[in-house]
Specification:
homodimer, about 220 residues, alpha+beta, Nucleoside Triphosphate Pyrophosphohydrolase, Arc Repressor Mutant, subunit A, 7-stranded mixed sheet, two-stranded antiparallel ribbon, 4 helices, elongated
Chain lengths: ~220, ~220
C-alpha cells in the first residue's frame, strides 16, 4: 500500500472545542455549557461543535468563541488534537482562549446555560473533556513563564496588584509582592501609562499597560 | 442550534503526516517520499496517510514512523493540525520526530523512493507540505532552547564536537566552541561516561551521554 492509497472513503467526525479561560474573583475559570441532548445529557462540557463543510479549524474556533463570549480579538491558539475523547474515535481539535471577564458577554440562552467554573472545582464533564481542560491548564501555566499571554485576561490598563492577582489565580499560589513586581518589570512587557487608579480605599496606584496586546514570547 | 446538534452526518478526511528529522553530514534533513499517484504525482511529500478506522492519531503516527525508519523509541510529538493544505479541506494532523541517522533504516521499496532532503534545499512539495515543514523547523529550533530533545538525534554516547554539530545543523549557524561547551555543561542534561572516542586523527575525546533519553524541559 502506498501512502496515498485511496481504496476506500475513510472519514471521521471532526469537532472543534474551545477552552475559554478567564480570571474572576481570584480564580482561574473556564466556560462550560450544559448539554441538552444525549449522550451525556445534562452533563457540563466544553463549548464546541462539529466542523462544518468549508470551515477551517481556526474559523470554527473563532466563531465558537464569538458565540459564547461576544469577543474575537483575544488570545486564541490551537491546543492539541485528540482522538480518544469518545468511543467512536471522533477527532477533536481543541483550541484555548483567554478573555477579560469584563468584556465577555455570555449569551442569554437558557438552553445552553453557559457558566464560568473554577478549574479547581469542576463538575463531572462529558466526553473526557476533563483531559482537555487539564492539558489546557498546563499549557497556560507553561506559557505564562515565557510569554505575555496574561494581556488577554486584563483590561487595557491595570494596576500591578491586579496583574499579580491574575498570575496568582493561574498558578494557584500566592506570590511575594516585591519579587513579583521586580520580576514583571524586568521582563519589559508592561509600561506605566502615567495615569492612576482613582477608586477604592487604597491610595491611587500607578496604572500599567502591556506594550503589546498580541502574543510575544520572551 | 445547540452545540450538540447532529442534524446531518458531516465527516472529513483525516490524514496523519510525520515530519521526520535527522542530522547527517552537518545538515538538518527531513524524510520525503515520492508520490506515485495523482494528485501531485511524482512530487515529493511528507510521509503520511489516511487515519484508518479504530486508529488513534498517535498510533497512526507511530506506525508511519516505524514503516519509514524502522524505529519507534525516539522523540515523537504532535506538531499541529492543519485544515488548509488542500482544496478539499482535509484535516491533517502533523507529528514530528527526531531520528539518529545511524539507527534509521529506510525501507527498500523503489515505489516510495524515501530520501533525506536538507531542509534548506527542499524540492517543491505536494499539498502545501512546505508549510508543515516550516512549522516543524520552527518548533524544533524553539524546543532546542528549553529541552534536551537533541538526545533523539544522537547515539547513546557522543563527543561534545558531535553534539555541537547537531546544534549547529538545527540552528543553521556555527557556534563558538568554548561558549557552546560551557553552556551545554551548565544545563546539566549530559554527563561524561568515562569512556573516550578511539578513532580518527584527533586525540581521544571524552564521550558523553544524555542523562535522560526522554523529553525533559528545563
Amino acid at each position: 500500500m502506498t501512502p496515498d492509497a485511496s481504496s476506500s472513503s475513510i472519514e471521521r467526525l471532526v469537532a472543534v472545542l474551545v477552552v475559554i479561560f478567564t480570571v474572576e474573583a481570584g480564580k482561574l475559570r473556564i466556560l462550560l455549557i450544559r448539554r441538552s441532548a444525549d449522550p451525556f445529557k445534562d452533563h457540563w462540557s466544553l463549548p464546541g461543535g462539529r466542523l462544518l463543510p468549508a470551515d477551517s479549524l481556526a474559523e470554527a474556533a473563532t466563531r465558537r468563541l464569538e458565540v459564547e463570549t461576544g469577543v474575537t480579538d483575544v488570545f486564541l491558539e490551537q491546543l492539541y488534537t485528540f482522538s480518544d475523547l469518545d468511543e467512536a474515535g471522533s477527532i477533536a481539535a481543541a483550541y484555548w482562549a483567554l478573555v477579560d471577564p469584563n468584556r465577555a458577554k455570555l449569551p442569554d440562552r437558557l438552553e445552553w446555560q453557559p457558566r464560568w467554573y473554577a478549574v479547581d472545582d469542576l463538575p463531572d464533564l462529558a466526553f473526557l473533556n476533563g483531559n482537555v481542560v487539564q492539558y489546557a491548564v498546563t499549557r497556560l501555566r507553561n506559557k505564562l513563564a515565557y510569554s505575555n499571554v496574561a494581556y488577554s485576561l486584563l483590561a487595557a490598563e491595570f494596576t500591578l496588584s491586579q496583574l499579580q492577582q491574575v498570575y496568582e489565580a493561574i498558578l494557584g499560589r500566592s506570590m511575594d509582592k516585591r519579587n513579583f513586581r521586580k520580576r514583571i518589570i524586568s521582563l519589559d512587557i508592561i509600561e506605566p501609562t502615567g495615569r492612576f487608579s482613582g477608586q477604592g480605599r487604597h491610595r491611587p496606584a500607578q496604572l500599567y499597560a502591556f506594550k503589546e496586546r498580541r502574543p510575544v514570547v520572551f
